[in-house]
Amino acid sequence: MGAKDLAGLVHPAIAIFFVFPIIGIVVNYAWQTRQRRLKAADGTKGKIPSNVGSEHLKLGQWLSNSVVALVLLGVAHPIFSKMIPDQTWTKDPTRFGFVVLLFPLTIASLVILNKARPKLWRGIFASLAGMGLILLGCQPEVFRRGNEWFVSHYYYGMAAAMLMIFSLAIFPDIYQDRTNRWRNIHIVLNCIALLLFVGQAFTGTRDLLEIPLSWQETHLYKCDFTKLICPP
User: Fold this and answer.
1) What's the predicted TM-score (pTM) here?
2) What's the chain's average pLDDT?
3) Phi, psi (5° rounding) for residue 61?
4) Confidence label for 176 from pLDDT (cuts 50, 70 and 90)
5) Rounded Cα–Cα distance for residues 117 and 199 (Å)
6) What single DSSP character describes residue 18?
7) DSSP of 48-99, one letter per residue?
8) Cα-based torsion angle of the residue sequence 215, 218, 219, 221 in order, rounded to the nearest 10 degrees
9) pLDDT tens-digit profile of 142-156?
10) Cα gap 101→93, rounded to integer Å
11) Do residues 229 and 223 make contact, with C-beta atoms less than 8 angstroms apart?
C-alpha cells in the first residue's frame, strides 16, 4: 500500500475505532435516561443512576462533533488527493482557495456552535457549519454515487452529520421546554440518525471493497462495470 492508500484508511479507521463505539454508549445512555424518566413520571424508583442524563448529554455532544469531523475528513481526502496531483491551484485558483478556506471556516462554525447559547446564534452557526459541509461535499473530486443515492455512503454520512449539527443546536431547548416537544423531536431524529449509522457501516464496507489500490487503478478502471468483465 502506498501513502495515498494509507491516507484513505484514516477515515474508516477513526469511524471503527472511535465513533462507532461512542454510538453504542450514547444509545445505551439514551435508553437508560428514557427508562429513568418514565419511572420518575410513574412515581417509582429504579436502579438506574441519576447521572445517566448528564453522561448521555456529554457523550452525545462528543458523538455529534466527531461525526461532523469525520465527514470533513472523509471529503478532505478525495479533494486534496486529486487537487494536488492536478495542480488545481494553477488551473482554478479561485475554487482551490475557496475550498481551502471552507475547511477552517466550517470547523470554526462548529466550535462556536458548541459555545453559543442564544437561540439566534445557535441557528446561525449551525447553518454555517451545515453549509460548509454541503459545499465541500459538492466538489467534483468527491464521489457521491448520485445514480444510487439511496445506497450512497456519501449521502448517508451527510444526512447523519446534518442531524448531528441539528442536535447540537437544539439541546439547550430540550432542557428548557416543559412540553417535551423538542425532546420528542430529538428522539425521532436521532432514531433516524441511528438507522443512517447502520447504513454507513454497510455502505462503508462495500466502498472499501470497491476502491482499488492506487497501483491497481490503471488496470481495474478498464473493466466493464455493467457487464462485470475485466481485461486479461
Assistant:
1) 0.90
2) 91
3) -65, -40
4) confident
5) 33
6) I
7) S-TTHHHHHHHHHHHHHHHHHHHHHHHHHHHHHHHHHHHTHHHH-HHHHHHH
8) 120
9) 999 888 889 999 999
10) 12
11) yes
